[in-house]
Amino acid sequence: MATISDVAALAGVSTATVSRALNGKSTVDPALAERVARAVAELGYTPNGLARSLRRRETAVLALIISDVENPFFTAIARGVEDTAQAAGFSVMLCNSDENTAKERRYVEVAARERRAGVIMSPTTGESDVGPLLAQGTPIVTVDRRLGSADCDAVLVDSRVAARDAVRHLIDGGYQRIACIAGPPGITTADDRLDGYRDALREAGREYSAELVRRCEFRETGGYEAAKQLLTAADAFLVSSSTMSVGALQAMAELGRSSGHDVGIVSFDDAPWATLISPALTVVAQPAHAMGQLAARLLLDRIGTGRTHPTTTTTLAAQLIVRGSSTR
Fold it and tell me: How far apart are CA 41 and CA 52, in angstroms?
């Protein structure tokens, strides 16, 4: 039985040209297409439609690698990705890295080995290793965080400006000792939010004090321990995620401190529970679902066009929603 390689050899072209000619691609030179047609007729070659169908089915899956599926922000991103992918006929494989570079690397290797059509990821660090994907030309889109080790599309939020505006709001509210509960060093969003905190203090003519900053994991326990350490010195908090804010609010309750009365608090991410507490939580709302949708559209476009056009970085704006927790 003749193969596509036999057709290519007889026609004097590459197998890729044979494939494009058989699929009716307009980019194939008519003379080459005619040579391919003659070779097909002479050899009696019949394309294996079943094999092509199976290959397409195997690769019509996107991998989504996020840091914490329990975080409502990343849950909303995942929903945005899935909604867009499903509408285009793609499935989504969800991977939870837990901010662990080794676990993230394993998922990257799985996505490469199983030849996923593309990968959307929120990298654990700016230097996360995506070598296995780059080696086989798998398109990558990063969401929420930058990836300095690869030239790929990115969908971000201007965390630095958002943090600066949140701290300005606390300064305008009369708070004097504003603390920052920031994420781990090396995570781009954590670094950006701490930089925005510094920007606001500097613009207000206030000194930055390392005593009012704690860096911890984007988890409830991190926020709890950080707030317990800072409450003796601070009268307001900028908290870098809603999960950290749960811990911070717990620490405040244990120490008999209430938000909006004793301590002002602004948190990144508008979690579903933010308006259910009293006073309601002031938040920096990020367009998480829209970020997931846009990341998926960029990836699907990259898959559909052969990944040849220049990469893009799209930076969306966050919205400060003022509620009772930051109002004296």
Answer: 20
pLDDT of residue 6: 86
State the pTM of this model.
0.79
The number of residues making up the chain comes to 328
The answer to whether residues 160 and 199 touch, using CB atoms and an 8 Å cutoff, is yes
Which sign does the torsion angle of CA 88, 93, 97, 101 carry? negative
Cα distance between residue 40 and residue 37, in whole Å:
5
Nearest Cα to Cα of residue 319 among 143, 157, 77: 157
Positions of the chain with pLDDT under 50: 49-58
What is the rounded distance in angstroms from the CA atom of residue 271 to the CA atom of residue 181?
Answer: 17
pLDDT of 308 reads 66
pLDDT of residue 4: 81
Exposure string for 114-124, b = 16+ CB within 10 A, e = fewer:
eebbbbbbbbb
What 3 state SS string does the chain have? CCCHHHHHHHHCCCHHHHHHHHCCCCCCCHHHHHHHHHHHHHHCCCCCHHHHHHHHHHHCEEEEEECCCCCHHHHHHHHHHHHHHHHCCCEEEEEECCCCHHHHHHHHHHHHHCCCCEEEECCCCCCCCCHHHHHCCCCEEEECCCCCCCCCEEEEECHHHHHHHHHHHHHHCCCCCEEEEECCCCCHHHHHHHHHHHHHHHHCCCCCCHHHEEECCCCHHHHHHHHHHHCCCCCEEEECCHHHHHHHHHHHHHCCCCECCCEEEEEECCCCCCCCCCCCCEEEECCHHHHHHHHHHHHHHHHHCCCCCCCCEEEECCEEECCHHHCC
Question: What distances in angstroms separate CA 235 from CA 90, 157, 174, 180, one per listed residue?
Answer: 49, 27, 10, 11
Measure the CA–CA gap between 211 and 228, rounded to whole angstroms.
13
Check residue 53 and give its pLDDT: 40
Half-sphere exposure of 164 (CA within 13 A, CB side): 14
Cβ atoms within 10 Å, residue 320 = 15
